[in-house]
């Protein structure tokens, strides 16, 4: 499913979401708040043929995961068309990559967007799933051109056609400030609560003692209608918070080089030695470390 002008929502949670009750809670938040984007079909892989409305909770737990939840993908073919994923955390066996957040993704067409509903969902989900960061954004042609330098870095931070965040990149730098960005504990610790609350943007909201929502302008359509204004605001906010935390093509490096060829393999610099980055305190559980299997 492709959109002419896609809007992207990402939410990165410290919980693995492999624990069934955590997974179901995230799913229920989606059902309760995103009334305009009700899920129709879902599956663990394509094609998505399972009817969401007729699925019992137990059916979301795969038979081969010993009671743990697994990543689920979904779509809505009725208008407004949408699709997304509930991705569980990945436990790394590679020392330089480390474990990941669980990630929720959501995509819809800009002309169909219910801005306030998505903002409300993003902020509440951040709080109730122990999120570290969430973003809501779209991409204009002018924005893509302005960010072209990022394309020089293999897997560096973002597909220009699809705004997406991943833990591996965030451990090295924060790619950008987005039209809507919700910061959780790791970034409140990094930037400071007062610094975040004093950002010179349209909307700043303290969500909790360890979470803040920042919105650049009143309307997400500004990204397309007035990209110069939005790009200027991102620069202002980055300088306000500390530019050394954000991607800079002059300082950046490839995160993975020649991983299939030992002779070409290069490790990235140690985390935090080039860019100012947060420390992610991911929440471990028996489903993440598989100890539930042996109970």
Give a structural overview.
The protein is α+β, with helices and mostly antiparallel strands and 295 residues long. The protein has one domain. It is built from eight helices and ten strands. Strands 3-2-4-5-6-1-7-8-10-9 form a ten-stranded antiparallel beta sheet. The longest helix is centred in the last third of the chain and has 15 residues. It is globular. The termini are far apart. About 4% of the residues have low confidence.
Question: How far is the first residue's CA from the last residue's CA?
Answer: 42 Å
Mean pLDDT: 88
Enumerate how many helices there are, as a single number: 8
Alpha carbon gyration radius: 19 Å
Bulk shape: globular
Order of strands across the main sheet: 3-2-4-5-6-1-7-8-10-9
> Which regions have little confidence, pLDDT < 50, spanning 5+ residues?
150-160
SS-derived structural category: alpha+beta
Number of domains: 1
Give a count of the beta strands, DSSP E runs of length 2 or more: 10
Give the amount of beta strand, in percent. 15-25%
- Following the backbone from N to C, one meets helices and strands in this order, namely EHEEEEEHEHHEHHEEHH
Provide the descriptors you would attach to this structure in a database record:
295 residues, alpha+beta, 10-stranded antiparallel β-sheet
């Amino acid at each position: 499913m492709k959109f002419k002008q896609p809007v992207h929502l990402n939410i990165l949670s410290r919980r693995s979401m492999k624990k069934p009750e955590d997974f179901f809670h995230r799913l229920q938040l989606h059902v309760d708040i995103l009334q305009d984007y009700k899920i129709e079909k879902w599956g663990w892989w394509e094609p998505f043929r399972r009817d969401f409305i007729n699925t019992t909770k137990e059916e979301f737990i795969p038979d081969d995961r010993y009671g743990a939840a697994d990543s689920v993908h979904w779509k809505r073919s009725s208008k407004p068309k949408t699709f997304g994923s509930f991705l569980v955390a990945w436990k790394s066996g590679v020392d330089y990559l480390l474990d990941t957040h669980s990630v929720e993704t959501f995509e819809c067409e800009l002309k169909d967007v219910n801005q306030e509903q998505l903002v409300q969902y993003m902020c509440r989900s951040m709080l109730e799933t122990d999120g570290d960061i969430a973003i809501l954004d779209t991409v204009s042609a002018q924005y893509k051109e302005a960010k072209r330098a990022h394309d020089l870095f293999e897997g560096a931070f973002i597909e220009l056609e699809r705004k997406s965040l991943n833990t591996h990149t965030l451990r090295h730098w924060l790619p950008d400030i987005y039209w809507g960005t919700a910061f959780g504990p790791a970034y409140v610790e990094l930037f400071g609560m007062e610094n975040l609350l004093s950002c010179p943007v349209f909307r700043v909201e303290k969500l909790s003692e360890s979470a803040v929502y920042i919105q650049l302008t009143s309307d997400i359509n500004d990204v397309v209608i007035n990209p110069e204004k939005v790009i200027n605001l991102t620069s202002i906010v980055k300088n306000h918070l500390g530019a050394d935390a954000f991607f800079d093509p002059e300082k950046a490096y490839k995160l993975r080089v020649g991983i299939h060829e030992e002779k070409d393999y290069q490790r990235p610099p140690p985390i935090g030695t080039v860019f100012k980055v947060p420390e992610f305190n991911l929440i471990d559980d028996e489903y993440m470390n598989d100890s539930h299997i042996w109970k």
